[in-house]
């Protein structure tokens, strides 16, 4: 038993040191990028600067992410009033491909010049600049979960775009759009707020909020049902590396007055956990206890409190669940 504990401690220390080293590397790259001009005449000029300052694939991939996230702005007008899809008239497949390629290059130049865009523009730019600095990058389209009503919905939408980039032989997940900030639906406004967690994000978190059109990631089939029925998790959940162990679904069936049981790994601050409905009214939390770095507690369900419950730590949202009355 002592040997097992010792091995666990060694592994834990190694993980902590590894995460610290990666964080320090990211900060070093970000600090260099923050000194870059806010705009460049061409994507080639930005790529040349990145090539000059960074040699590793990881640093180049991070540098592109950080520059775009810091200097691009989300195009609220286009998001709220999307233009009609581009229609191509072509003679043959070769002509079609040429027209699509020319159109995408035009969109890349426009987004880079205006420094505004929606997710398609962010992902196109990331891929384009990535190729210029010698990286392998792909654009992925799929579904994104951002709202309470996304919990437990029945179908997928193709409403978002992101990237995967190959770094030292490993494909990494990148969402520059969400790294730039977020959209406040209550104010119908884009809020600029750099969120570095959306670079090289752990797949277990990434695919709780993203689902590719193909339904696959690196030949691994993802579960549509798990994604759609999963809880809505927020940035602080991922930043803290918290993991929901119970319930297994984000959709909970409950009776009036029933106590709902929750278990969350890596969460331990008893006095800083709260739970509210969609209107900000508090739920009663009871039977809090912690064991082996897992916080357990119960929430008393009341029908008049609405359909959703959200957990907070220090008033920062962690995760939301949908309650269906039995």
UniProtKB/TrEMBL annotation:
Annotated Pfam families: Transglut_core
| Entry superkingdom | Bacteria
SUPFAM superfamilies in UniProt: Cysteine proteinases
- Report the residue ranges that make up the Transglutaminase-like domain in this protein: 111-178
Q: Which GO terms describe its cellular component?
A: cytoplasm
Membrane-crossing residue ranges in chain numbering? none
Give the protein's recorded name: Transglutaminase
What lineage is this protein's organism placed in? Bacteria, Pseudomonadati, Bacteroidota, Flavobacteriia, Flavobacteriales
